[in-house]
Every structure is written in C-alpha cells, then in structure tokens.
Amino acid sequence: MAREQGPFKTDNPWPRIGWWSVAGLLAAGAVLGFVVLGGEQQNGPRLGTWTAICRALGIASDTGPATAPQPPLQTPTRIAWTAATLARIAGGDVKHGEFVALNCAACHGEQGVSQSGLFPTLAGMDAGIIYKQLDDFRAGKRSWGAMNAIATALSDQDAADVAAYFAGRVNGLAPILGENFHGGRTLREADVATRLAFAGDPARGIPPCAACHGPSASKPGAPSLKGQRPEYIERQLAAFAQGIRQNDINRQMRTVAMQLTPDEMHAIAVYYGSGAAPAELAGR
Ligand code: HEC
Ligand code: HEC
C-alpha cells in the first residue's frame, strides 16, 4: 500500500526522535536553570538542590533569622535628655559639689578655670553637659585615662552636685544665651572661622557652629565654646573627625568635624578660644 511507504510508514521513527529530543532538551534546561544556575550565588556558597529550585522559582527560602553574626549594638551614650534626667541634674547640690570639686582643681584649675591647653575649662559650662560627660567617662563611652578613673569614683549624685557647682562659676565659658546674635553673615565672609561659625558651609553639609553652640541658639548637650582653651577645642575636633571621640548623640559633631580641614579646625579653635568671638559680637 502506498500509505505504508515513504513518510507515512507507521513505523516512522522521526516523530519519536523529535519528541524525545524536545523532552531531553527541556530536562537539560530544567537541570541547568533550576539546579545548576539557581544554585550559584554571586557572593555566597553554592545552594543545595532544593533551595536552588525554590530560589529559581522565586520562592524565598531564607526567611529564617540570619545566621551571620551581627556586630554589637553601639550607642554613643547612656544619657538621654529626658525630663527625669534633667530633673536629676537640676537637683544638684552646689555646697556638696564644691567639696567634690576639690578633686578637680589640680587639673581643671581653681574654680574650674583651666590654665593649660590640656584641660578644658569647666567654669560656666552647662550642668547637664558636665553631668553627661562624666557619665560618658564612667560608662567608657568617652576615653581619657585619668578622667575615666575619676568619673568612676563619683556617684551619680556627686556628678550632679559637682556639675551644679562648676555651672555656677564665673570667669570661664561665656553663657550661650542672652547675647545678641546679629544675622547677615554671608557665605562670602572672608574670614574662614567667622564664616564657619555663623554661615557654615552648605556645600559640604556643615551647619553654622552657632546654631548649636550659641550665641543665641543652642542644642541640648552642646557646650559654650567661647572662652574654652583653643588647644582643647582643636584636639576635640580632631578626635571627633577621626572617630576617637564618639559620644555625641546622633553623630552631631562627628558629621561636622569630618568635613573640616586641619587648617579650618585650627582657625575656628583660635577664634572661639582667643576671645575673638566676644569682640566680634560686640562690634556688630
Ligand atoms: C588628672 C587630671 C584631671 C583631674 C584630676 C580631673 N580631670 Fe576632668 N578632664 C581631664 C582631661 C585631660 C580632660 C579632657 C579629656 C580629653 O581630652 O578628651 C577632662 C575632661 C573633663 C570633662 C569634659 C569636659 C568637656 O568639655 O567635655 C569634665 C566634665 C571633667 N573633666 C570633669 C572633671 C571633674 C568633675 C573632676 C573632679 C571630680 C575632674 N574632671 C578631675 C583631666 C582631669
Ligand atoms: C548640630 C549641632 C552642632 C553643630 C552644628 C556643631 N556642634 Fe559642636 N557639638 C555639638 C554637641 C551636641 C556636642 C557635645 C557632644 C557630646 O555630647 O559629647 C558638641 C561638642 C563640640 C566640641 C567639644 C566641646 C567640649 O567641651 O568637649 C567642640 C570643640 C565642638 N563641638 C566644636 C564645634 C565647631 C567648631 C562647630 C562648627 C564647625 C560645631 N561644633 C558645630 C553639636 C553641634
């Protein structure tokens, strides 16, 4: 019969060969796509067969807790400016503070007015700031050998008392508030220190120092700088910039200091420390 000849033979093998080839290709494709390629990760070990198939299908199989070790949580300080903390600081006893402060005069000077660039002036510093720095030293959030030991020896109440005592001393840091702050400082101001203090540098994301450190505006925790020892100011700026000092809440100072050049740090330290700031303000 003509139908049993040529391409119409019933035992023609080609359709079977065709189907099997397609099935073979699909199987090889599935193994390649789901197992071999699905198992490869860009930055990790090869996945197991089942995980690889799930991943290739888009089913996330890694929903369990991550097994990789996480770095320990780092907080810059134990202090938060809550009503309870502020009340505790406000309750400092000046009389007892004066007694505690006998331990401080050798370094921080008579009544907290420092005579050396190594030690900061404490007289006139806001009590909350002194309290916070003492707690940071005690908790190891800020490091300087002797201060860590001294702060550890003080009780919480001692710290509040000595803070109240130094905050009330005169001839030290200028008060942040109560001064007339004249605007109109522009970014074209020639003197680099004045420019940074009053206008900042928006291109580098530096807000004016005066917005937090006074005059006239202040942020909790930001000490008055006017009248502080210039060497101390410069050293703290460098410490913030290098991440050696990390106890500033929300990285407020590290963010600023990282942007400053060493020359700018020096200029601004001299500006605040030399008493140029009061003269500058008086003239405006
Ligand atoms: C052996 C010297 C020494 C003695 C004593 C000492 N301090 Fe200090 N203190 C320092 C030094 C140095 C620093 C600055 C550390 C640094 O450069 O980071 C400092 C920093 C501080 C600060 C931080 C000030 C700031 O501007 O952030 C406070 C607050 C402070 N001391 C309080 C005290 C109190 C209160 C006492 C007494 C109970 C005391 N210190 C005794 C050496 C001393
Ligand atoms: C966003 C607010 C903010 C701005 C802007 C800012 N500071 Fe500060 N600064 C702080 C705070 C808050 C602290 C206290 C950090 C802490 O808790 O230890 C601080 C601390 C400092 C200290 C250490 C003082 C001490 O007694 O230990 C120096 C020095 C300083 N700032 C300089 C500057 C200079 C210079 C500028 C401008 C270029 C500036 N800051 C801009 C918020 C600010």
Task: Give a written overview of the molecule.
48% of the residues lie in helices and 0% in strands. It is mainly α and 284 residues long. Among the domains are: 85 residues, Cytochrome c-like domain (Cytochrome Bc1 Complex, Chain D, domain 2, Orthogonal Bundle); 91 residues, Orthogonal Bundle (Cytochrome Bc1 Complex, Chain D, domain 2). α9 packs across α13. The longest helix has 26 residues. One heme C binds next to α5, α6 and α7.
Relevant terms:
single chain, 284 residues, mainly alpha, Cytochrome Bc1 Complex, Chain D, domain 2, binds heme C
Q: Give the beta-strand count.
A: 0
Bound heterogens, unique = heme C
Low-confidence sequence ranges: 276-284
Structural class: mainly alpha
The overall pLDDT, averaged over residues, is 87
Give me the number of helical elements. Answer: 14
If you consult CATH, what is the topology of the domain at 192-282?
Cytochrome Bc1 Complex, Chain D, domain 2
Inertia-based shape: elongated
Give helix % range.
Answer: 40-55%
Percent in strands: under 5%
CATH architectural arrangement of the domain at 192-282: Orthogonal Bundle
Radius of gyration: 34 Å
Question: What is the CATH superfamily label of the domain at 192-282?
Answer: Cytochrome c-like domain
Briefly, what CATH class of the domain at 192-282?
Mainly Alpha
Distance between the termini: 118 Å
